[in-house]
Amino acid sequence: MDHLKTQGISMPKLGLGTFRMQGDVCRAAVESALSIGYRHIDTAEMYANEEAIGTAIAASGVPRGELHVTTKVWHENLSRDAIRRAFDASLKKLRLDHVDLYLVHWPSKAANWGAVFEALMTLKEEGRTRAIGVANFTTALLKVAVEEIKAPIACNQVEYHAMLDQSKVLAYLQPRSIPLVAYCPLAQGRFASDPVLADMALGTMPPLRRSR
């Protein structure tokens, strides 16, 4: 599987997102994914499934060095002490001694971003996360993180697919060599019911008219 290198880590380009999966369903899905070759698992404290994922990873027998595990801190925990408490809880549930990538899951208007990224950097310096990053950041927030704070952002994880234009975010990230990590690439199933895409798949679209 192809890998993406950023801020000192190498993560598989294809990962298993676990949003809305919990309990035995989540555990079974992760076990199945690992058995067929997935090595990138994405979770978050808000998903309430880290414990199930930890169980699946432990049962898989896949060496830790072959895995990339991402988790995230929720916007309600974006203070220095709350970040550490949330991280400790996530690590315990995952049964790991470190994660590969720790993200700010969602922005908060009340956040002191300098303090937030200082706390994240401390976790990185301690070796408890190999890299840090953000999710759902606009270009304005990216400028704060990258240009003002100079945080070593490994990625910005955002919803990205044919039905959602993220060109502004991409235009900011690409020249700075910061990857965009896409979630919901199939628009949470909306592609299946889109009439234009259905016509394209069935070959029933009328031919395009060429201008002279």
Most strands sheet: 7 strands, parallel
Oligomer: single chain
N- to C-terminal distance: 45 Å
Helix fraction, binned, reads 25-40%
CATH topology: TIM Barrel
Radius of gyration, taken over Cα atoms and rounded to an integer in Å: 19 Å
Strand order in the largest sheet: 3-4-5-6-7-8-9
Describe the model.
The protein is an alpha/beta fold. It has one domain: NADP-dependent oxidoreductase domain (TIM Barrel, Alpha-Beta Barrel). Helices cover about 35% and strands about 20% of the residues. It has seven helices and nine strands, in the order E-E-E-H-E-H-E-H-E-H-E-H-E-H-E-H. The strands form two sheets. A seven-stranded parallel β-sheet has the order 3-4-5-6-7-8-9. A two-stranded antiparallel sheet has the order 1-2. Helix 1 links the parallel strand 3 and strand 4. Helix 1 packs parallel to helix 2. It starts with a strand and ends in a 10-residue tail after the last helix.
